[in-house]
Amino acid sequence: MIGAVGDLLEDVVVRLHGPMNLASDTAATITRRRGGSAANVVAAACAAGTKARFVGQVGADATGDRLLADLRAAGAEAVGPRRGRTGAVVALVDETGERTMLTDRGAATELSQPDRAWVAGLRHLHVPFYSLCVEPLAAASSQLVDWARSEGATVSVDASSVAALEDFGREGVLDRLSAMAPEILFANAIEAAWLGDAVAGAATVATVVKQGPGPAVILRPDGARSEVPALPVESVADTTGAGDAFAGGYLAALVGGASPDRAADAGHRAAATLLGG
Prior knowledge:
Layout: E1 2-5, E2 9-16, E3 28-35, H1 37-47, E4 52-55, H2 62-73, E5 77-79, E6 86-93, E7 99-106, E8 124-128, H3 137-150, E9 154-158, H4 162-168, H5 170-180, E10 184-188, H6 189-195, E11 206-210, E12 216-219, E13 225-228, H7 242-255, H8 260-276
Parallel strand pairs: 1-4, 1-8, 2-6, 4-5, 8-9, 9-10, 10-11
Antiparallel strand pairs: 2-3, 6-7, 11-12, 12-13
């Protein structure tokens, strides 16, 4: 079973029909759906046929009820306290499918007093950097990683967001990654560029650089490098969650015994399914 600790949020996706008209009206299509990086990874792993568990704090409100029901309907387990207000992300999606996110994480960052049972039976625990850059969630995530490792689980970290990395600071990010010692680090091309030369050594097994429609680049600590081509997608309506879907597909394949290259191919399939939908 795969676990992921962090956010289950409501995504409010605003697809612009044209350029933004500042201080005036802009036609758009607005939809609401389940989001949050950790929840997205769990859902993608379930879609790939692997058991998966979301770990996190969700608001004690009707929105949280709906999002948890939706995640469980996708086949996932969900554990953690119900307190506070469920957060939301407004994703502004332009005509090309690129998105800009406005984030209010609500109760998700307030996870504290973790329970060792939350990671019992996991073979792998995934931690978005979003879960490592704010307290008390960061301390809870670190404790869960320690418990998961003591039971033989491996760990991955996703760099998550250049904005989050910049706010935390380069030295702090590298210290946090060193302390976490993930077997796998996921980063997109912009995040990898921000990490610079440190990206190759940030994981003990492999760093996987996601490049959207370009090939995923797998960097190993010994200097070996491979590229795995992405799958073509005819029409991309929205890129929101594609990186998380890649990670979920990758990890599902990896815990099933796939090599990193084959796992990357599975990640591309998961991302293409989301993008094409």
